[in-house]
Specification:
This protein is of the alpha+beta class and about 625 residues long. The chain is about 25% helix and about 30% strand. It is built from 17 helices and 32 strands. It has three domains: about 190 residues, BirA Bifunctional Protein, domain 2 (2-Layer Sandwich), CATH 3.30.930.10; about 160 residues, YbaK protein (Alpha-Beta Complex); about 100 residues, Anticodon-binding domain (Rossmann fold), CATH 3.40.50. The strands form seven sheets. Strands 14, 15, 16, 17, 18, 19, 20 and 21 form an eight-stranded mixed β-sheet that branches. Strands 1-29-28-30-31-32 form a six-stranded mixed β-sheet, sandwiched between helices. Helix 3 crosses helix 13. The structure holds adenosine-5'-triphosphate and magnesium ion (MG). Adenosine-5'-triphosphate binds next to strand 9, strand 22, strand 25 and helix 13. This is Proline--tRNA ligase. Keywords: Aminoacyl-tRNA synthetase, ATP-binding, Cytoplasm, Ligase, Nucleotide-binding, Protein biosynthesis. Homodimer. Belongs to the class-II aminoacyl-tRNA synthetase family. ProS type 1 subfamily.
């Protein structure tokens, strides 16, 4: 008799995995080079195998979990109306040339040549290809909005592959791209995608924090990174008591209140010898110019002025990339954070000014640089004066001890907003734990996490670079607004392993475990194997996925250890003695429960439990 195709499919889907034939070899020892728990356990439990640094082979158990994670992602992303496509990983150079990413990616890209010497790359991400595909097929506002996605292998020649699947050189990404006629459409697509992310990570039982990834003021569009908080993470984020979180580059300092300077004495210029460093300035001032208010001078009284070079791209007035020196005033008790500062000038890059830069500007007197020789103050008499920026911590009306632009001369009581001005306020210094959070909800704390996904409002960057334009309602040709949205699928799997295990092994959530039940037949007695076989058949008939440890010459101890390592959520132990007493032991892998269930009802009890957990 032949069963129907559907029945055959169901049978295949729920066919128990038998340990006697499963392609699996568990390891008792941690692999020597595994640096984090997920990398150790996924290898020891036979989910993955190393092929090369940062390049992994998926074994049957690993592939099963990966497929389930992908299915959850598909359901949610299809649920917001996105459509799945699949691009090649091997791509021609030209589109990446057009967006400058062929160079910008630097050494992180795998580049190769075909037999005709044409350049190709293994895609690190696919913005260019999606943009060109839509350009190829669509031409009108009537075609939009559309969101496309793929789940696909990506390649990045990471400098330091680490943490197993968490930073691989070949990895699996879900990448989605939205195309809309206007900015409002882009924002809606972004919010839809973001909502799907929240549902995906909740369903995967993976803790996540959406972290604001970009600062508003100096351009750049909205972006959030979804981080899974964990100590092994490479990303630091600042967390407010409100639960909101930011990348340090995206943190905005709350505006300090203006200070009333009506009683502040006029600024005075005083000799301050050998005062190149902040410490020396404090020591010298305390010895020679005690403060009126009785307290000591301290580093936070000093306005430190740092010379920075901004490397601009060519623009309307410059045919070539050009270099601008700027001076940034920061409180003396804080260090400049170049990454935070650079984010304010993106896409231009920053570097510290060189010896030659300073030589070219005699108004910058090393150790005695002050705000009077630059910025709006100096521009009153010198059109060419360098731009001066002030750190966001500096309150208007505050009085400063700072350089007077002459050797061994400093200003005292130089007031911001009275004696000098700035060309702009910037986030220039490091943030510290305890700083007030941008939303005013209390002091910031710092946590570490792994980036599991990112949502990004791209705006017009790619559509302009690649000429993706459509006709709008008025028959005018306009560029398309885009968003891009990534999830690191293989990284997510590792993060779940990282947060769902104990010292004995993995402990998967029910909905992505390679099976829901692990049945162990212990001992040598046929009674146990017969009862186990029957249980496996009944569970399979109920649509439950089972790993069945049917190995004959393997000790119960080894079977228990393997079950703990593999991490299936429900473990049923079938031994001669209990079966003769009419029971089978049912345990939860997480140790929360263990009970003897009657042989007659055990299949139903387990089935109900699985179905409840999967609801
Ligand atoms: P990271 O800062 O960790 O290098 P990224 O910001 O460069 O990541 P994106 O370009 O935003 O990464 O890629 C989308 C997602 O792909 C990331 O959120 C992350 O989950 C995943 N991902 C990125 N690089 C890797 C990698 N080397 N191995 C595994 N997953 C990765
Ligand atoms: Mg990212």
């Amino acid at each position: 008799m032949h069963s129907s195709p559907l029945a055959r499919t169901l049978e295949r889907m729920t066919k128990a995995l038998r340990m006697s034939t499963l392609f699996l070899r568990t390891l008792r020892e941690d692999p020597a080079d595994a640096d984090v728990d997920s990398a150790k356990l996924l290898q020891r439990a036979g989910y993955i195998r190393k092929a090369a640094p940062g390049i992994w082979t998926w074994l049957p158990l690993g592939l099963s979990v990966l497929n389930k994670i992908e299915e959850i992602i598909r359901e949610e992303i299809n649920g917001i109306g996105a459509q799945e496509v699949h691009f090649p990983a091997l791509l021609p150079r030209e589109p990446y040339e057009a967006t400058h990413r062929w160079e910008e990616y630097g050494d992180n890209i795998f580049r190769l040549k075909d037999r005709h010497e044409a350049d190709y790359l293994l895609a690190p991400t696919h913005e260019e290809m999606f943009t060109l595909l839509v350009k190829d097929m669509y031409s009108s506002y009537k075609d939009l909005p559309v969101t496309l996605y793929q789940i696909q292998t990506k390649y990045r020649d990471e400098f330091r592959p680490r943490a197993g699947l968490i930073r691989g050189r070949e990895f699996i990404m879900k990448d989605a791209y939205s195309f809309t006629i206007d900015e409002e459409g882009m924002r809606k697509a972004y919010m839809d995608e973001r909502g799907a992310y929240e549902r995906i990570f909740q369903r995967l039982d993976l803790k996540y924090v959406p972290v604001f990834a970009m600062s508003g003021p100096m351009g750049g569009s909205a972006s959030e990174e979804f981080l899974a908080p964990m100590a092994i993470g490479e990303d630091t984020f600042a967390l407010a008591p409100s639960g909101k979180a930011w990348n340090v580059e995206a943190l905005n300092t709350p505006k300090p209140e203006d200070i009333d300077f009506s009683a502040t004495p006029a600024a005075s210029k005083r000799e301050t010898n050998d005062a190149i460093t902040i410490d020396n300035m404090v020591t010298f001032a305390n010895a020679n110019y005690p403060r009126e208010d009785g307290r000591d001078w301290q580093a936070s009284d000093i306005l430190k002025n740092v010379v920075i070079a901004v490397k601009h791209a060519e623009d309307d007035e410059h045919d070539e990339p050009w270099r601008e020196l700027i001076v940034v005033g920061v409180p003396g008790d804080r260090n400049v954070d170049m990454k935070r500062l650079e984010a304010q000038f993106a896409p231009s890059e920053l570097e510290e000014a060189t010896e030659d830069d300073l030589k070219a500007h005699p108004e910058l007197v090393r150790g005695y640089i002050g705000p009077m020789a630059v910025g709006p103050q100096a521009r009153k008499t010198n059109d060419e004066a360098l731009r001066y920026f002030i750190d966001a911590h500096v309150a208007r009306g505050s009085a400063w001890f700072t350089g007077a632009d002459e050797f061994e001369q400093d200003y005292y009581d130089l007031v911001y907003g009275r004696d000098f001005e700035a060309d702009g306020v910037v986030e220039a210094v490091e943030v510290r734990s305890g700083d007030m959070s941008p939303d005013g909800s209390g002091p910031l704390s710092f946590e570490r996490g792994v980036e599991i996904g990112q949502v990004f409002q791209l705006g017009l960057k790619y559509s302009e670079a690649l000429g993706l334009k459509v006709l709008n309602q008025n028959g005018k040709t306009v560029p398309v607004w885009m968003g891009c949205y990534g999830i690191g699928v293989s990284r997510v799997l590792a993060c779940i392993a990282e947060t769902h295990h104990d010292d004995k092994g993995l402990a998967w959530p029910m909905n992505i475990a390679p099976a829901q039940v692990h049945v162990l037949a212990t001992g040598k007695d046929e009674v146990a194997f017969d009862a186990a076989e029957k249980l496996v058949d009944e569970l399979s008939a109920n649509g439950i996925e089972v790993i069945y440890d049917d190995r004959k010459k393997v000790s119960p101890g080894v079977k228990f250890k393997d079950a703990e390592l593999i991490g299936v959520p429900i473990v049923a132990v079938v031994g001669r003695d209990t079966v003769n007493n009419g029971t089978i032991e049912v345990r939860d892998r997480d140790g929360s429960n263990s009970e003897a269930v009657s042989v007659d009802s055990v299949a139903q009890v387990i089935t109900d439990r699985v179905n409840t957990a999967l609801k």
